[in-house]
Write a sequence for this structure.
């Protein structure tokens, strides 16, 4: 049996939201699918090159895994694993930071007549390798559902003294606005704080925001409580002029 779909995405390190990961998805070619002992067995034809060995487990590779979850999951949840997988597959992060070539390659691999074909195409074409975190992917998925102008991602602004740059998660240059997703890790994860206390991180974030405001006067910040909502992002974004047409 080959581990596939959401279970394969989990093994590839993808963030997953509102997905029951207790149920293992596996593929064994045949006529019908069935569920037994916590395993949902899918019956699909699968090419040998789409199967890889991960620590002794047979797993669908990142590309077929991306196609499978794109066909099954709805926005905004679909973007969490898709952004991650497109980033994994992107061979040219400098020349093609968003991974558009990867995305179009995946779209071209979707089998004709595949269940969820239209959803897979739509979801894949919204994936972006520049997304910096699961929270950013979720936020962008909510923006897509809201129909607001989509931002540029991971945009750099130079310091006035030329001594460095500040990178923002979301940028709307025509609206002179930017947005930041603030997960708890920014303030408490040792790998992200660099040994700074939460108070020091907060001070540095305030200084960084003041520098960016010289380029983009209007700023919005939000966390998981907003990103998980279907309605709260609209209110937060409207405060900086980001509204649906």
């Amino acid at each position: 049996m080959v581990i596939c779909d959401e279970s394969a995405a989990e093994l590839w390190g993808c963030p997953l939201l509102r997905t029951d990961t207790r149920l293992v998805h596996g593929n064994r070619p045949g006529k019908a699918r069935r569920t037994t002992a916590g395993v949902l067995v899918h019956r699909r034809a699968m090419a040998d090159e789409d199967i890889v060995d991960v620590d002794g487990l047979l797993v669908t590779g990142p590309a077929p895994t991306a196609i499978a979850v794109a066909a099954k999951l709805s926005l905004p949840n679909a973007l969490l694993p898709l952004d991650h997988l497109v980033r994994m597959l992107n061979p040219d992060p400098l020349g093609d930071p968003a991974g558009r070539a990867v995305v179009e390659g995946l779209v071209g691999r979707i089998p004709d007549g595949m269940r969820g074909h239209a959803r897979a195409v739509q979801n894949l074409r919204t994936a972006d390798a520049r997304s910096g975190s699961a929270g950013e992917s979720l936020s962008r998925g909510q923006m897509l559902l809201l129909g607001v102008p989509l931002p540029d991602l991971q945009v750099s602004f130079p310091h006035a003294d030329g001594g460095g740059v500040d990178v923002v998660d979301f940028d709307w240059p025509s609206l002179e606005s930017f947005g930041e997703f603030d997960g708890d890790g920014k303030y408490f994860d040792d790998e992200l704080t660099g040994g700074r206390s939460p108070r020091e991180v907060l001070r540095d974030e305030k200084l960084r925001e003041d520098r960016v405001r010289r380029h983009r006067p209007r700023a919005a910040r939000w966390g998981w409580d907003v990103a998980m909502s279907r309605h709260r992002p609209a209110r937060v974004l409207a405060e900086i002029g980001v509204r649906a047409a």
